[in-house]
Design goal:
This protein is an alpha/beta fold. It folds into two domains: 4-200, 2-enoyl-CoA Hydratase, Chain A, domain 1, CATH 3.90.226.10; 204-249, Lyase 2-enoyl-coa Hydratase, Chain  A, domain 2 (Orthogonal Bundle), CATH 1.10.12.10. Helices cover 46% and strands 17% of the residues. It has eleven helices and ten strands. The protein has helices at 29-43, 70-73, 77-96, 112-119, 144-154, 156-165, 171-176, 189-202, 205-218, 226-231, 239-249, and strands at 4-10, 13-19, 50-55, 60-63, 101-105, 108-110, 122-126, 130-132, 169-170, 182-184. It has a six-stranded mixed sheet, with helices on both faces. Strands 4-6-8-9 form a four-stranded mixed sheet. Helix 5 (144-154) packs across helix 6. The longest helix has 20 residues, at 77-96. The radius of gyration is 19 Å and the shape is globular.
Length: 259
């Protein structure tokens, strides 16, 4: 029941699993630390091309934070500040990881689970998945950095709606809110997420990393600088560019090396 973060690697794709199935993968403090550790380590593995983040089983991605530990770990301002710093490190580790991250969402994706999913680069869910951040019922706020993660996906107005109402809503509404990229039948979630990861992995890995970096930069309202624009042309100096366009002309599948 304590929960753990499991990491597995299959070729160029890693899978990180939130594993506390006895409590619908609700996140405790150790698991938040484990997320930061796992993504920090995977970021350093340049052989990887994509990461899948999922919950154990098919009942939940993650049902928020483990409220049972609040009496010991998150009971006043000081303890909440320390807990929040651990959460922030976990969210940031996903957001800043060089590799694209795909959230595979079965079932409940609420509270902290929704925040984790919003830190991923793509989100694929099942038709029966459900979403929301009902922390108003706990007398608890969504911290600024956590709301920022949600707002970066759905926009400030919708993020405020989610926080103010605390309503649990379904997959179709999540798609309408742009919270998820794709809704598939529940039995196809794993297959679609894995196929998505494979499509990403088949591309030039340096390009995927640049695109993730560009999207993050565009979330910053600061006007683009000359250096920002110049980075758009760095790909032309890579071996993968030579491989890619020559393979296209030869009508062959490119074999990218990430250099």
């Amino acid at each position: 029941m304590s929960g753990e973060i499991l990491t597995g690697i299959d070729g160029q794709i890693a899978t990180v699993t939130l594993s506390a199935p006895g409590r619908l993968n609700a996140m405790n403090l150790a698991m938040w630390r484990g997320i930061a550790d796992a993504f920090t380590a995977l970021d350093k593995d340049t052989s990887l091309r994509c990461i899948i983040l999922r919950g154990a089983g098919e009942k939940a991605f993650a049902a928020g934070a483990d409220i049972a530990e609040f009496q010991q770990e998150r009971f006043d301002r000081d303890s909440a500040r320390a807990y929040g710093a651990v959460m922030a490190a976990a969210l940031e580790a996903i957001q800043t990881c060089r590799h694209p991250v795909v959230a595979m969402i079965h079932g409940a994706c609420v509270g902290g689970g929704l925040e984790l999913a919003c830190c991923c680069d793509m989100r694929i869910c099942g038709a029966a998945s459900r979403f929301g951040v009902p922390v108003k019922n706990l007398g608890l706020v969504v911290a600024l950095n956590e709301m920022q993660a949600v707002a970066s996906v759905v926009g400030g107005t919708v993020a405020l709606e989610i926080a103010l109402e605390g309503r649990i809503f379904g997959a179709d509404e999540a798609l309408q809110k742009n919270l998820v990229n794709r809704v598939v039948p529940d039995e196809q979630v794993a297959g679609e997420a894995e196929a998505t990861a494979r499509r990403i992995a088949d591309g030039a890995p340096l390009v995927a990393r640049w695109h993730k970096s560009f999207a993050r930069r565009l979330a910053d309202p600061t006007p683009l600088s000359a250096d920002d624009i110049e980075e758009s042309y760095a790909c032309f100096d890579t071996a993968d560019f030579q491989t890619g366009y020559k393979a296209f002309l030869a009508k062959e599948k490119p074999e990218f090396e990430g250099r």
